[in-house]
C-alpha cells in the first residue's frame, strides 16, 4: 500500500517588551542611527549584480543554474560562508555578501543539484520576476504539480504558500508572500535526480541534521531582514540552548505550545537561564520538511513575521529537535539584552 504524506503547518508566536531604562534608551538610539548609517553605506558601496536571462533552463538564481559545476559557481560567488546537511542527503552551501545576494547551493559530484534564494535574484526565460504574483506565475507556467509520486511514497502538494512545477528535469518550488499580494518571495530548484533519491518526506533526526536546521534558519532570517533594510541579528549560542531545551521538551512530552507542562512561558525560561533582556519574542514551527519551508510558513503568519522583522531585536537563538515521527520542532528565541 502506497503511503501518502500531506504537508502541513503549525506555528505559534509570542512577544514581550519590558520597560527600557533611561540609561539604555540613549544607547539604543545611538545604535539605531549607526545601523542606518551602515545600511546606507552598504547600499552606496555594494556592486549591483547584473542578472542575465538564462540560456539552458527556465530559471537562474543569481546567474547560477542547475548542472553548473562548483568551480563555475565559486568563480562567480566566491567561497561558501557555511555548509550544512540538507534533507536530500547532500549539503547546502551558503553564499552571500553580509546576507545580501543570498543563495543556497547543493552539489552532487561537484555539479549543482539544488538552488534557493529568498531575495530578488531570479531571472527567467519567460520573464518571471520576484514582483509577479501567484496568478501571473500560473498563467505563464501552467498548473502546478498536485503530487510527487515516488516508488513507495506520494507527496501531496497542497499548500497556498507555494507551488511546485516540473520542467527541464527540475522541480521548481515558488514561494509566495501572502502579505504582499502573493508576490514571489523565494524560489527553490531541485534536480529530479536528487528529488528522486529522497524516499521519505522527512530526514533522519541526527544531531548533525538538527544543528544544520538551526543554522539554516538563522541564515534565512538574516537574509530576510536585509531585504527590508533591517540590521542582521547575531547568533547567540546560549539563547539557542534555551530554545533547544524547549524543542526537546515538546518532543519528549508530546505537545506544541509556548507554555510548557510546568506552566513556564518563554520569558520564564529565559529568566531561569539568566538572561537580562529588554525585549524578547518566540516563534514556534512544527511539521515542515525543512527550514526553508518553515521560514516561509513563518513569514506568511503575521505574528511570526513581526518577530522576524522586528527592528529592535539584536540576537537570535534557534533550537531544533526531531521526534520519532521525524517531524522537526523549531523554536526561535529573539532577544535584546540589557
Helix content: 25-40%
Please tell me what the overall shape is.
globular
Report the structural category. alpha+beta
What is the makeup of the main sheet?
7 strands, antiparallel
Tell me which oligomeric state these chains represent: single chain
Instruction: Give the amount of beta strand, in percent.
Output: 25-35%
Number of helices: 9
The sequence of SSEs as H and E is EEHEHEEEEEHEEEEEHHEHHEHHEE
Q: List low-pLDDT spans.
A: 1-8, 17-46
Strand order of the largest sheet: 4-5-6-7-13-12-11
Q: What is the averaged pLDDT score? A: 87
Radius of gyration: 20 Å
CA distance, first residue to last residue: 57 Å
The total of beta strands comes to 17
Search tags:
single chain, 338 residues, alpha+beta, seven-stranded antiparallel beta sheet, five-stranded mixed beta sheet, 31% helix, globular
What does the model show?
The chain has 338 residues and is an alpha+beta fold. The chain is built from 9 helices and 17 strands. Helix 5 runs parallel beside helix 8 (291-299).
Protein topology:
Layout: E1 3-6, E2 10-17, H1 22-45, E3 59-61, H2 70-77, E4 82-85, E5 91-97, E6 100-108, E7 111-117, E8 122-124, H3 134-141, E9 147-149, E10 153-156, E11 162-167, E12 170-177, E13 183-191, H4 192-195, H5 207-227, E14 234-235, H6 237-253, H7 266-272, E15 277-286, H8 291-299, H9 302-308, E16 315-322, E17 328-337
Parallel strand pairs: 1-10, 14-16
Antiparallel strand pairs: 2-15, 3-8, 4-5, 5-6, 6-7, 7-13, 9-10, 11-12, 12-13, 15-17, 16-17
Helix pairs in contact: 5-8
